[in-house]
Design brief:
GO terms for molecular function: glucan endo-1,3-beta-D-glucosidase activity. By secondary structure, the chain is of the alpha/beta class. The protein is built from 13 helices and 15 strands. The chain folds into 2 domains: 327 residues, Glycosidases (TIM Barrel); 117 residues, no CATH class.
């Protein structure tokens, strides 16, 4: 090509780039995926959440249930969706093909055709073989998977939408600790083989949830550095596992490859294995903090961006980070940390710096609107020894999230007055700052100066009523509808008790 022709070509290229910049927008080396839970009293509106996902390079998301506002917001977004069918629906869907067809019609077909949601997987159940369930969902899981598959075929969606089952890592084990010795748990080995064979034969994937944090939480003697991905150039953990010629330097690689070895033992090594949940919480336990979460998730993001997998699966699979946002209405049965898994706070603000491809940091949600800048605190002239305090705090924490007050948590070092104030404010914010929600037997007052201190943040909730385009999640609707009754009965009960 002559120099003149080259200059003309360059000019055309620059003109096209200016006129159509989207054509030249670089995509991450490896896109990200996240779990979007909706168990929040004041959920971040769907349109803002979808924009948060896209602004940070997430192109896949997993929903635990068919939350209508979330699904509508995901329409025409370019984000692929894994949609959960909850455990409580396994039995009815397993018992009736018609029930499966109706569920697919209402929650898959409708959102694909009417709203343009790019649903790629139906996640049938959530960790249904968990040991603590004591077999409750075992008989229903495979029939439910088969019926959902049949329903997808009937709906003409089986080429686009595939089935999977998210499983806990306790479905497999290694008796000698080496990944190559991995096999399925003996009590469900036959069921696992049948399930994976069905998924493989029908174009599905196997989804596994891996939680290095929970290894540390369950065993105080678990080697902490083995829970994290080693930094480049750092010496391997002393807990590293030598397996033949392979040295496993972190629990994720060893855990994942234990599953791969189990699959290969049964001739199922061809099944794609997706990581459905993995992350690190920031509160609710001594090891749940922003420093540890940043260390773990940055190591994870670096692996995802580099596409680096494990010794048995060198290509990094799809990995759904757990979780996108904190959820203050989740069950805390597993531990107080359950409400604090988010990479982002409840309002979409980053908890700590995380670098994406090219060193670009994650960015906060845009367009979030909050309730007024006011807080409910213990009155200055009230005594912490007042006999009504205990009942008032107990009531406040029954209906709001006080998990940050635990030992070793972000608000665990507050003095007695601040501790009470935190509980009062959590209830006040959860109840949409209704004046009656700051009426604890004349022990409380509303202030306009932020009482936050140290690592403890006194929150102001999202004003969900001021956002347009999307409604509230199911959890948010139920919570809002019940606050009037909670205030009327609960505060009256407190007053009666004090009287």
């Amino acid at each position: 090509m002559s120099s003149c022709a080259a200059l003309r070509a360059l000019a055309v290229l620059l003109w096209v780039a200016a006129a159509y910049p989207v054509v030249f927008r670089a995509r991450p080396v490896q896109a990200l995926a996240a779990n979007w839970g909706t168990r929040a009293l004041h959920p971040l509106p769907g349109d803002i959440t979808v924009r948060l996902l896209r602004d940070n390079g997430f192109d896949k998301v997993k929903l635990f249930e068919a939350d209508a506002p979330a699904l509508r917001a995901l329409g025409h977004s370019g984000i692929q969706v894994m949609l959960g069918l909850p455990n409580e629906l396994l039995a009815p869907v397993a018992a009736s093909v018609n029930a499966a067809e109706q569920w697919v019609l209402q929650n898959v077909s409708t959102y694909v055709s009417k709203f343009g949601v790019d649903i790629r997987y139906v996640a049938v159940g959530n960790e249904p073989f968990l040991k603590s369930y004591k077999g409750k969902f075992e008989a229903a899981t495979l029939p439910a998977v088969q019926n959902v598959q049949a329903a997808l075929v009937k709906a003409g969606l089986a080429r686009q939408v595939h089935v999977t089952v998210p499983l806990n890592a306790d479905v497999y084990e290694s008796l000698d600790g080496r990944p190559s010795s991995g096999d399925f748990r003996p009590d469900i080995a036959g069921l696992m083989v049948s399930l994976v064979r069905f998924l493989l034969d029908n174009g599905g994937v196997l989804t596994i949830n891996i939680y290095p944090f929970l290894s540390l939480y369950a065993d105080p003697n678990f080697p902490m550095d083995y829970a994290f991905f080693p930094s480049p150039g750092a010496p391997p953990s002393q807990a590293s596992v030598q397996d033949g010629n392979v040295l496993y330097t972190n629990v994720f690689d060893a855990n994942y490859d234990t599953l791969i070895a189990a699959l290969e033992k049964h001739g199922l090594g061809a099944i794609p294995v997706v990581v459905g949940e993995i992350g690190w919480p920031t509160d609710g336990d001594k090891n749940a903090n922003a420093v540890n979460a940043q260390r773990f998730n940055q190591g994870l993001f670096d692996r995802i961006i580099a596409g680096k997998g494990t010794p048995r699966r060198p290509q990094m699979p799809d990995v759904y980070v757990f979780a996108l946002l904190d959820e203050d209405n989740k069950s805390v049965d597993p531990g107080n940390f359950e409400r604090h898994w988010g990479v982002f706070n409840y309002d979409g603000s980053p908890k700590y710096r995380l670098n994406l491809a090219g060193g670009r940091p994650i960015v906060p949600a845009r367009g979030v609107r909050y309730l007024s800048k006011q807080w409910c605190v213990l009155r200055p002239d009230a005594s912490t020894s007042d006999p009504a305090i205990a009942g008032a705090v107990g009531y406040a924490c029954q209906y709001s999230d006080c998990t940050s007050l635990g030992t070793g948590s972000s608000c665990g070092n507050l003095d007695a007055r601040a501790n009470v104030s935190y509980a009062f404010n959590q209830f006040f914010q959860a109840a949409n700052q209704q004046k009656a929600a700051c009426n604890f037997n004349n022990l409380s007052t509303i202030v306009t100066t932020d009482p936050s201190q140290g690592t403890c943040r006194f929150e102001i909730m999202i004003d969900t009523g001021r956002h347009e385009l999307t409604g509230k999640s199911a959890a948010g609707r139920v919570a809002s509808a019940s606050w009037s009754a909670v205030l009327a009965l609960g505060l009256a009960g407190l007053a009666a008790a004090a009287w």
